[in-house]
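Task: encode each sequence below as structure tokens.

Item 1
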Amino acid sequence: MASMQAHRRSFIRHPADIPLAIAVDGAHRRSAPRLKDVSEGGLACLSRRPLSVGAAVVLSIPLVQPPFRAAGVVVWCQRQGGAYEVGIRFADADDLFAARMVEQVCQIEHYRQQVRREEGRLLDAEAAAREWIERHAASFPAFGNGRPH
């Protein structure tokens, strides 16, 4: 378990502001979970309610178009203050690559919003992507070793 936690920590962390939709056994959750990180096996999210280990889920990230959708299984759920951190393993290995692309898009969108808030600059998606890549792509972990380049 300790090595699993260390492995999870080796990947870039999100500011936990990327919205997710999670359907458990076909029913959408109303707890507004937020993406925390994506790793080689799946993703972690924050939820106001616990999810049962072993539950089959369908994830979607509506921030990107078309929305990212993937099937998964809840592999762990831990209380974190007033919320729950939930680990979900992707059911299909192809979804992992798509999730990494979504993760990068989400990081760029977060950067665009941060620049608007902190600097008052309005960037379109393309300009935000160029700046984010120049400033942060080298610290975005690659699959395989989980360490920044």
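Item 2
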Amino acid sequence: MNGAAGGAAEPGELTLAGLRQRLVEFAAARRWEPYHTPKNLAAALSVEAGELLEIFQWLTPEQAAAVMSDPERAHRVRDEVADVLAYLVQFCTVVGVDPLEALAAKIERNEHRFPAPGAASDVNPDVG
């Protein structure tokens, strides 16, 4: 599954690199690059994350768990997830962060900070 990481992909397979390029081309065709500053993209990302949250606002845990079974709400969730991901990818492109590498490094740090119960290093220096 190298395609997901932006490496060699099967024809028609979605890749992070391919989606990043489509977003760059989409913005360029509309001459939006001057507006795609780190601050503006971070703000847009926050707004879209808020719109995703709005779908779940005031729902009980049971209602929230069933959101995807309602076609209208499921469509809204998919649209907001797409918006959040698009702005995150655009932000990462502008600031030069590889989101997959950043996530892998963060997971590794968290594995050390928060070891699984019963692990040899079951001590959390950040707590206490």
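Check on item 2: Residues 71-95 form the longest helix (25 residues). Residues 47 and 89 are 15 Å apart (CA to CA).
End of task.
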